[in-house]
TrEMBL record:
Species assigned in the record: Rhodanobacter humi
Domain of life: Bacteria
Protein transport keyword on record: no
Keywords (A to Z) from UniProt: Membrane, Transmembrane, Transmembrane helix
Keyword Transmembrane helix in annotation: yes
Positions of transmembrane segments: 12-32, 38-59, 71-91, 103-122, 142-159, 165-185
Protein name per its UniProtKB record: DUF1453 domain-containing protein
Length: 200
């Protein structure tokens, strides 16, 4: 699977995830049927599972260096999430902080952020540039920015629904995605300039 096709499929899946999340959330809090609540709560998981399957296929079909890079990055990300889970668990057990069950929603995003950072670090060590201006889709930065703005709108909705805790978390996630979009855009602009000067 080439990089551009992989990016398109991941972006489409995450866009569907955001749409389903926005649509299911009001219905989830409006219904009293336990079975319907369970169904609405689990529907957003489906596009995420598809993204995980895409990642597995991409790693499976890559060469040995790429597989090793991904394995090390996933190991670092798993260690990070495990350490944060232990810290949070002990603080919660000690009564220092109060953590609700919905904190589990953030395990996968934190794992992916840790994986992304570790992948870039490991790629540099192996002499591979993980962000290539020619390899990826040109609209990746705008995709991140769009997801961030969508989360910002959803956060405002949650704030209007008198759920300030969830709204603040959504605002933080929105800022992260907007910052990620800005960072990817700057990296690609810099890579393009270096390529132009190198070819001159």
């Amino acid at each position: 699977m080439n990089n551009k096709r992989y990016e398109r499929q991941v972006m489409l899946s995450m866009a569907i995830y955001m749409v389903v999340l926005f649509a299911a959330n009001p219905l989830l809090h409006a219904t009293r049927s336990l079975s319907l609540k369970a169904l609405l709560a689990l529907v957003p998981v489906l596009p995420v599972l598809y993204v995980i399957a895409l990642m597995w296929r991409r790693i499976r079909d890559s060469d040995e260096l790429e597989q090793r890079t991904n394995l090390v990055a996933l190991g670092v990300a798993a260690a990070l999430v495990s350490a944060l889970s232990l810290v949070g668990g002990f603080l919660s057990a000690g009564g220092v902080v109060q953590l609700k069950g919905d904190v589990l929603i953030w395990v996968f995003p934190v794992l992916m952020v840790g994986y992304g950072g570790a992948y870039k670090w490991v790629s540099r060590r192996y002499g591979v540039d993980s962000v290539c201006a020619e390899d990826g889709s040109a609209w990746v930065p705008w995709y991140f920015a769009g997801i961030g703005l969508s989360m910002l709108v959803f956060g405002l909705y949650l704030w209007h629904q008198n759920r300030p805790g969830s709204a603040v978390v959504m605002f933080a996630a929105a800022l992260f995605f907007i910052a990620m979009g800005t960072w990817v855009w700057r990296r690609r602009v810099r890579a393009r300039r270096l390529a132009e000067h190198g070819g001159a």
